[in-house]
Q: What sequence folds into this?
């Protein structure tokens, strides 16, 4: 997620990285927005329906297994204004990157601390950080449930 977050911020350096340099207090909401936009690869989390349930106007019988695409939910225009845009100041940000409910991610606070700390240190220590090459040439890592980007070449 650190690799994806930094790549997202450097991919539009003027509107994202430089905005954070101008206002580092945006780091926590920038982290949430990176999580909203690209935390969950793959098709989603399965859930077993133990009683008849209505979802989106559709009745799901007891015993159904559904797959919940957090990635799709995180770009739901009914839940997020400008759902396709990266808004570094988005608050509140009710994204589903860590799931929801009793099985929501037990490590989410650790993940947040790591992401926020890395971002704050990079902004302070390497303000001239930039991507080498075009963001479109970055390659997604294949075969891992957590996804990620193979290599994020940078210079400063
Ligand atoms: C950006 C980083 C991370 C993301 C996007 C993430 C995402 C998720 C998601 C989507 C779930 C499933 C939630 C659900 O079923 O509703 C989950 C569960 C879990 N995560 Fe994470 N996670 C991250 C980091 C971590 C870290 C750092 C740890 C531990 C050190 C961790 C430990 C766990 C565990 C143990 C569960 C299972 C919780 C349960 O079933 O009760 N995760 N995570």
A:
């Amino acid at each position: 997620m650190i690799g994806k977050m930094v790549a997202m911020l450097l991919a539009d350096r003027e509107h994202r990285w430089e905005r954070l340099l101008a206002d580092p207090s945006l780091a926590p909401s920038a982290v949430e927005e990176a999580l909203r936009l690209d935390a969950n690869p793959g098709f989603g989390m399965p859930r077993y329906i133990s009683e008849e349930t209505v979802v989106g106007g559709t009745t799901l019988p007891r015993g159904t297994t559904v797959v919940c695409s957090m990635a799709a939910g995180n770009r739901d225009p009914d839940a997020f204004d400008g759902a396709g845009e990266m808004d570094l100041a988005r608050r509140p940000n009710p994204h589903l990157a860590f799931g929801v409910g009793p099985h929501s991610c037990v490590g989410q606070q650790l993940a947040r601390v790591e992401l926020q700390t890395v971002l704050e240190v990079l902004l302070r220590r390497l303000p001239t950080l930039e991507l080498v090459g075009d963001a479109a040439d970055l390659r997604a890592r294949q075969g891992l449930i957590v996804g990620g980007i193979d290599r994020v070449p940078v210079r400063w």
Remarks:
- The CA atoms of residues 31 and 112 lie 7 Å apart.
- The beta strands are 45-48, 53-55, 58-60, 65-68, 130-131, 154-155.
- The mean pLDDT is 95.
- The radius of gyration is 17 Å.
